[in-house]
Amino acid sequence: MEIDFVIEKFILVTAIFAISLVIAMYSTYAERKVAAFLQDRLGPDRAGPFGLLQPLADGVKMFMKEEIIPANANKWLFMIGPGLAMLCACIGTAVIPWGQDMMVGDRLVKLQVTDINVGLLYIFGVISLGVYGVMIGGWASNNKYSLLSSIRAASQNISYEIGMGLSIIALLLVTNSLSLREIVAQQHGWQWNVLYQPLGFIIFMVCAFAETNRAPFDLPECEAELNGGYTIEYSSMKLGFYLFAEYINMFVSSTIMAALYFGGYNYPGMDYMATLLGPTWAPLFGTLIFFLKIFAFIFFFMWVRWTIPRFRYDQLMNLGWKGLIPLAIANIIITGIVIAILKF
């Protein structure tokens, strides 16, 4: 049984890792197609039918490019930075419940790598570590633009982690759990947390944009001022790791928002579908619904990037400290009062 458990988890980890890489790879294609649609043009359409092989062509190009390490850079930290960014981006999926328990033969399989009772704290720990890859790469490059970029990234992440954490406190008052599996299971059918915490969701989503360095919060990369920011000295697959890490972070952020606020694998009529499809296929159908929600959020990330202009740095900080944090505190107080009244 122990060997079966190890094999089961190994298959699940490999599948999630592969899916994360494929989604990140084709997010680059989707980004360019969404931008082209919004700007009334075609986008990539040469590599393969409808340009579907463009991500593979870009990947081959990254592998074939020359590796360049600046003479005055800290060589080891320069190499560690992209790897750390990629590692922190990938391990965030370990506590995500991708579906209900499913039957495979006579064995009950959990579609989750690990179910820890402090899954939300784990997610926040991983998010906090992610900025170290940017900081180390920016400092190790020995370039003033990359150093300024890493300072921006650190201050931005610290500022918006506070608002994100406060928005989660209000959600914890509603769910009484730190386990992602329990939080998702409570949102059966239409009982999604976004209906009870709409303000908390908006605050969390805005903070997620800032944590992933996505526009209009892409100040660490700001081409007009910093010439590309912390990636300015990087080439080949080191640059590719940073770009992949950003898209995987976008995928993980979309997954967390869909799980916490939009029911995850839950959907209306799931009890009927469980009866119709049985204990093997019904959980997989729920997983498909979960991924549709995730793709909707990824599209929203891209839509915002090509619609809203970048903030100035003072506007970025003012929004975080003077806008989102007071709103998140007010949301906690209102939620606490409402729960106290309902219990009374």
From TrEMBL:
Gene expressing this chain: nuoH
Role, per record: NDH-1 shuttles electrons from NADH, via FMN and iron-sulfur (Fe-S) centers, to quinones in the respiratory chain. The immediate electron acceptor for the enzyme in this species is believed to be ubiquinone. Couples the redox reaction to proton translocation (for every two electrons transferred, four hydrogen ions are translocated across the cytoplasmic membrane), and thus conserves the redox energy in a proton gradient. This subunit may bind ubiquinone.
Gene Ontology MF terms in the entry: NADH dehydrogenase activity; oxidoreductase activity, acting on NAD(P)H, quinone or similar compound as acceptor; quinone binding
Protein's membrane topology: Multi-pass membrane protein
Organism this protein belongs to: Pedobacter xixiisoli
Domain of life: Bacteria
Protein name (record): NADH-quinone oxidoreductase subunit H
Transmembrane residue ranges: 6-26, 76-99, 119-140, 160-178, 190-210, 239-262, 282-304, 324-342
EC top class, as a word: translocase
Protein family membership: Belongs to the complex I subunit 1 family.
HAMAP family: NDH1_NuoH (MF_01350)
Catalytic activity reported: a quinone + NADH + 5 H(+)(in) = a quinol + NAD(+) + 4 H(+)(out)
InterPro entries listed in its UniProt record: NADH_UbQ_OxRdtase_su1/FPO, NADH_UbQ_OxRdtase_su1_CS
Quaternary structure note: NDH-1 is composed of 14 different subunits. Subunits NuoA, H, J, K, L, M, N constitute the membrane sector of the complex.
Subcellular location: Cell membrane; Membrane
Keywords for the protein's UniProt record, in alphabetical order: Cell membrane, Membrane, NAD, Quinone, Translocase, Transmembrane, Transmembrane helix, Ubiquinone
GO CC aspect terms: plasma membrane
Primary location recorded for the protein, binned into one broad class: membrane
